[in-house]
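Submission checklist for the structure archive. All mandatory fields must be present; incomplete records are returned to the submitter.

[x] Identifier: (thale cress) hypothetical protein
[x] Organism: Arabidopsis thaliana
[x] Residue count: 399
[x] Sequence attached
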Amino acid sequence: MINTDIDQPKASLRSRFLLHLIICLLFFVPPCSSQAWDGVVITQADYQGLQAVKQELIDPRGFLRSWNGSGFSACSGGWAGIKCAQGQVIVIQLPWKSLGGRISEKIGQLQALRKLSLHDNNLGGSIPMSLGLIPNLRGVQLFNNRLTGSIPASLDTWGSKSLNLRVLSLDHNSLSGPFPFSLCNLTQLQDFSFSHNRIRGTLPSELSKLTKLRKMDISGNSVSGHIPETLGNISSLIHLDLSQNKLTGEIPISISDLESLNFFNVSYNNLSGPVPTLLSQKFNSSSFVGNSLLCGYSVSTPCPTLPSPSPEKERKPSHRNLSTKDIILIASGALLIVMLILILNTLKLALHCVDPTPSTRPEAQQVMTQLGEIRPEETTATTSEPLIDVPEASASTSQ
């Protein structure tokens, strides 16, 4: 006879175990639908491009482990930092991931890419030139890395389809080289910042073409030359930071016309002259300090008063009236000239009287020449001798 009293507790124990197992599976095993493939397949070019990007990155925290397999889940949220549209990558967003290495040139294969956000990592190397091959690129955020080299001179090819680039943030890297003039052709640009790099050169006046620009930050570089007066034509400008550079000259008064400007800083440059009144009233002294020749931005930095013009400069444009002394001197000079003319005429008449023969008479010019050759000592030593030699022929005739 079977002992049912013993079998019943065993059956209940198995039932409880199965119940606990089902509960654990429900709580700890994720539902299959969360990783289900939605039918969108990443294109082969984008898949290869992402794999090439991954190969050149150093991922100490393993954020890119999901970038594996055949790529079926790349556009379904399975790959970290990737967003797609119609099987093409439109966003790479991996900030604060401690990523090292460099950005691969193969990133140019992602032809639908609109946003590249890799800021606050440890990326080195240069900015890929292939970014200029991406026609719909709208935002590049690579600040707070260790990027080197120069900013590509062909910036105007970035987002070349209707020049779509709107945001370019390259702050706090080790970029060098001249200021990229091609930036002025990115007419849709709203925000660009190269602060705390090693950019040199001058600011082009063509920056005024960026009519939609809201923020411009080039602080902490080695940019020199004058501040373009044309910056005052960018009415949309809200934030302008030119501090810690090598800019010279005066602050253009046109900057005062920027009504939307709520941040302005030109401190620690080599600027000179008076600060435009409206700017000194709108912004505090911290926006202007560090320019030894700049004045008028605070009570402690008054501009020197203009010196009064010297008397000589005042007399130059005016006509001075003649004094009595001047009139006497002029009259005396005129009288001396008249007397000299009379003396010359008298000498000429005397010559006619001395020599009756016209052919042998000395000319007045000869007389004056002889008078000029007489020395003072000769006149005192031979006062009894005639000043004019009489020719022998005329002397014998008189006898």
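[x] Structure attached
Curator remark: The longest strand covers residues 88-93. The radius of gyration is 48 Å.
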